[in-house]
Give the backbone structure.
Amino acid sequence: VRSAQLLRQALRALLRHPLRDRSWYSSMTPVIHLKDLALSEHAHGSAFEARLAQIAAPLGARRLGARYLEVPPGKKAWPYHSHHANDEIFVILGGRGRLRFGGQDHAVAEGDVVVCPAGGAETAHQLIAEGEAPLRYLAISSMHEPDVMAYPDSGKLTIHAGAPPGGDKAARRVDLSVRADSGVDYWEGES
């Protein structure tokens, strides 16, 4: 009897926890219509361009990230990279493209699902739009932080702490990109 009472008390406390408060959710719908998304522009130089919108965060997801992307033919949304802490899944909704994955190329098209587990160079990945129409896809990821991303093409490392990649940039305590070969000895400068 005592253990049942303690269990009920613990469950009540858990349900009252501020991160568990979903009272705001009753006024929202858990359904997003892709055609209704307000897409923002994302571009860098002549190689990177996409229109995108967050999907999971606006509906309260904290441990799962999701965004919708449209990448014009011949363009890429992001550099070739790997995540050391986060898995990603890409659901191809339209168009066709090429997946660079771990040093190999794979054709992708509508109806394909791409899984990119956390890891090093062996799981580095990048989607490149090909053909006449934009490559349209959902990018879904775990939202672990801190995360370290490696960029094999440029030899960089990026570290995020406080908010994961795709998370709230204002919440990041660490947002650092460095050349992978610019390391220093652990004890350098310590006294």
Summary: The first strand starts at residue 40 and ends at 44. The chain has a mean pLDDT of 90.
